[in-house]
Amino acid sequence: MSATDLQVDRQGRLLHFLTVEGLTRRHLTEILDTAESLRGVAERRVKKLPTLHGKTVVNLFFEASTRTRTTFELAAKRLSADVLNLNIATSATTKGESLLDTLRNIEAMQCDMFVVRHAQSGAADFMARHVKPHIAVLNAGDGCHAHPTQGMLDAFTIRRHKPDFPSLQVAIVGDILHSRVARSLIHALNILGAGEVRVIAPRTLLPAWVESLGARVFHSPKVGLREVDVIVMLRLQRERMERALLPTEQEFFQQYGLTEERLALAKPDAIVMHPGPINRGVEIDSRVADGPRSVILEQVTNGIAVRMAIMSIVLGNHARPIEEDA
Amino acid sequence: MRIAIEGGRVIDPAHQADTVTDLFIADGRIAGSGQPPAGFAPDRRIDARGRIVCPGLIDLCARPREPGQEHKATIASEARAAAAGGITTLVCPPDTDPVIDEPAVVELIRRRARAAGQVRMLTLGALTHRLRGERLAEMAALKEAGCVGVGDGGRAIASSRVLRRALEYAATFDLTVFLTPLDPELGHGLAHEGQVATRFGLPGIPVAAETGIIARDLELIRDLGVRVHFGRLSSARAVELVARAQEEGLPITADTAVHHLHLSEIDLSGFDSRCHAIPPLRGLRDRDALRAGLASGVLGALCSDHQPHEPDAKQAPFGDTEPGISGLDTLLALGLRLARDGVLPLPALLERLTWGPARILGLDGGHLGVGAPADVCVFDPGAEWRVEPDTLHSRGHNSPFLGWDLQGQVTHTLLEGQVVYTRKERV
């Protein structure tokens, strides 16, 4: 069973959210439209909706993360769910408990949704395959495979600024090879009918068959950034140097870092994005990160609305079949 | 014990024989076929009408997991599975725990295998001490203890200097060297470096991880003239390299595992950990080239690369699972499927499972000539069965073929003239 069959039921409704790949434009548009309608909640005096009242959401983080976990937590709380945060990076599994045992234990606490982050590609898929049918699994990042809520919040942010997707040119710059964010965003943009998705990186940071994801490859930002509407910079992990993928951070910044000069190659109204946390002076110059074209902080704000949308859609789809059975 | 196997289609690839006839066995050896030898009175008759009678299968790579990983399987459990799969000889690589780098381990395996009966379990000794690729193992002593060859145990030796010395030393004692070509550095990954690994974000293993090592090894072999067998080839380019070297006259042979002829990277879809194998399942082009290589004989043997696991070993996210496929039960039926699909004629397929590996090992066996050890497999080529946990005899149920409907079922297996397996008809 492929991931698509796993996350979508026979009527085409989302039961889990594991990957953007294989979903339809209708799925993605529903998420974006719902997020749009939920975006106002944060501006209200009472920042809460009763949608998930009585539901329990567990953040199961096998990999350290502050930002993603916090926005999932806020999203769930603004929908009135109870939230449990488990940072397993430092607990049970290091004591030798298998992922399946961890899953069974938390399942026994009668939760409704697992938000999973794990260092292994396919971990969320694995969870979704093994949870009881009433539980929904949201992928909060699995290895280098997918980070679908990030892909959706990036698409959401882009749509707010550049609604005309057919003419849209998006460049993703940096460590594509290890980036689950890049994979999810490439799929999302292609499904939404974006004009062109470019990836810009040295060959060591590109997967062997990256074109097959639906992206045009550039090795030089000088060429690749020309006339784009959106630039997405990716975080560069320091261990890439030790693994002989790059010589130094300095050389990377010189060749690929987003500076004001490079930004000038893009369209005059181009926006700059970054999934965070940013490495100033490694992949992006501070003047660009903090500059007028940067929508990096807006991405964080949008992340909450998009995650609220996905949570309510997925749990809503779970509620219906159970009611029908009763 | 005298046995007559009557009325079967006897296929003996070593003698290019393929006729419906009777086969006679006495004192553990083949006594004749067609007309019974003078004064032959069978103690037992096996009705083989409608069935195929061939030499017992010889599997060049199967890990019974004992000693060291008895929670996965044991010599006894896997000997039963081998017999049920028509396999009468299997070769256990040296990466047991302890490593087969001293005679005592060879002796231990022999003793346990003898106690289990049902299969002839041969061992490969380690090329290097503890398989660390640093110091030579006591190959002469290992040979005297009964090892049929020496090998790297699944991990290519990184140091060309150590490998060269090991090849020279092995050749001194007329040992065939069994190498598994996978670069220890470049081969460090989870899946074939192809479209599927790209989509799934799995670290890729490029084809060059295999061919780079083969190219290096071929250059060493060219200098030394030592007999080398390359095990578990996975790529089209590897087949090409080996074919060219064979044409050139280098003393090399090669095999592939049967799952590489039926599956590809596409089968990893859904992160199916049962398809987590090393070398990895590669592209369709590779699969087809391996099939062609088996048909042409560049790949002289087809093996199971049997690696049984306990369920937990595969119950985790893909990258946290152990590689390997349980294959003894399905080797013959998956092979027959190749013959049915027209990849190669049935007698040629059976050659790659019997006489081919026997020649690679230098064994007296793998054929049905008079005087040969009476290792015989009788199977019903049309019998359908579904691969399911309860139709597998191996303790390892980690098969990507679960749910497949296969044709060809062993009805009798004879080891040195003893019936070690008889299929019970299911009610």
Describe the structure.
The complex is a heterodimer of chains A (326) and B (427). With 326 residues, chain A is an alpha/beta fold. Chain A folds into two domains: 3-147 and 301-325, Aspartate/ornithine carbamoyltransferase (Rossmann fold, 3-Layer(aba) Sandwich); 148-294, Aspartate/ornithine carbamoyltransferase (Rossmann fold, 3-Layer(aba) Sandwich). Chain A is built from 13 helices and nine strands. In chain A, helix 2 packs across helix 6, helix 2 (25-38) crosses helix 13 and helix 6 (148-161) crosses helix 13. The longest helix of chain A has 30 residues, at 296-325. Chain A is globular. Chain B has 427 residues and is α/β, with parallel strands linked by helices. Chain B has two domains: 2-53 and 373-392 and 399-422, Urease, subunit C, domain 1 (Roll); 56-361, TIM Barrel, CATH 3.20.20. In chain B, strands 1, 2, 3, 4, 5, 16, 17 and 18 form an eight-stranded mixed beta sheet that branches. Chain B has an eight-stranded parallel beta sheet with strand order 6-7-8-9-10-13-14-15, sandwiched between helices. In chain B, strand 9 (149-151), helix 4 and strand 10 (177-179) form a beta-alpha-beta unit. Chain B is globular, with a radius of gyration of 21 Å. The two termini of chain B are 30 Å apart. The chains are: A alpha/beta (326), B alpha/beta (427). Chains A and B meet through helix 1 and helix 5 of A and helix 5 of B.
